[in-house]
Amino acid sequence: MNSSFGGGKLPGKTRYAGRRRAMTRKSGFSVHKETTGGEFSRQNVAAHALAKGEEIEVSFYIDGHQPGDFLGFGMWFWHSDGIESELIGSPFIPTWTGYSSLSWNKVGSIWEASTSTPVSVVFKLIAVEAGKASFYQPLCGRLKHKHYEDAPHRLMKNMFETAPEAIFVDDEVNASVNISFPDGSETEHAEIILKSCNRCGRYLPINIINERNHLSFTNHCVAAHRRPCQHSSFGKLRNVENQSEILHLDYGYQLECRFCKKFEVNAAHNPQRSPGQMKEDGARRRAFELLLETLFEGSPQLIYRHKFSSELAEDIWEKFQRRCFNCNTYLPNARAMHLDHTRPLAYLWPLDETATALCKSCNSQKRDRMPTDFYVKHGQLEALAQKTGISLEELKNPKPNETAIDLLLARKHWFFSTFLTRPEMCKEREGKIAGELVVKALQRVLASSEKHQFVNLQDEYAQLRDK
Prior knowledge:
By secondary structure, the protein is of the alpha+beta class. It contains 14 helices and 18 strands. The longest helix has 21 residues, at 275-295. The two termini are 34 Å apart.
């Protein structure tokens, strides 16, 4: 079965002749002279042995800053199975992964200081069973970079997402990192793989065994039909020290690190997007919501109210103890909560009693990801299964909503002749018709279906249009 639920694009971008946009904007930034983004390096780092019950403590301390300064702490780390992590004193939402022992992890945060009070954060690795642990580039301090100067608030408010790769330390403030090891602990070696960024030229950590365990770069080819990545620039990495060694990747990685992608690509492009482009995603989302309301004969809120005699938002808010499930931020009321579909609307899952309570920031990060791609910390999926009532097996093996697909295909005539002829489905923006975009989005859902992956809705729609 096709079990990938990422943001990959299906073929058909130019299916309707003459409707592909011309390139209208450039980022204004150039690539690095010494790297292509397709190089990697193997590095050996110290691995510290821990006996059962022992722990390693990493202390981050920042002082001498002023209100309004951007501060950050973070590092990459690895540990064997049987070792747990704990973060104490983080003043803002952290980035903190919980991948298995086959992958490296990262922890950190970036935030705007509200006071000049010194900051102290402690990260611990605790050996429940005997094991090993490694660290790579622990950093903290006030941040200084050309992209941070006069950066708009919209870019800086979620900077914690780019820790630790966006931590560029300003040496003018008092900042220190101290690592405490158990007495007599032995030191061995572990390997970390670093990939080049074609913008800043830095070599930053990636995971190879499980490429979906993101660190410093995001994947390039996510949809199953596009894997393994065949793009030489994204799907192959050449060892910069040993030119004969080439890594062939499954998903592939973007050429730019996430920091450069944010500031030198997206930040430069997005403000130049036309109104039509800005409205496309929202239009597709509204179309899916309307489609599901029709197929299931009612809006999610009305169906829930009729079924339980209470309000969906209020019940979910209470079920999650008035806190964001992902970062534990307190949500003072149901209006402060973002009601997440848990399983994405993009795969025809309606908003119902399986919804998740998230804060605005976490909901924005999750977007259309399946739970297994977003909730990666140890125990998160198990807790989500308990809260939502979705079985752990279903969460670990994501699928589109087959019931909704069955209902849609049973009413294909209505879908083509009535739904797609609604005025809002016939609107054209910059050469793109809303109904065509909806059909293409639905084709992506069908491609991931066990039962209907060979149904070609796009071809049927094109044939009807030709007639």
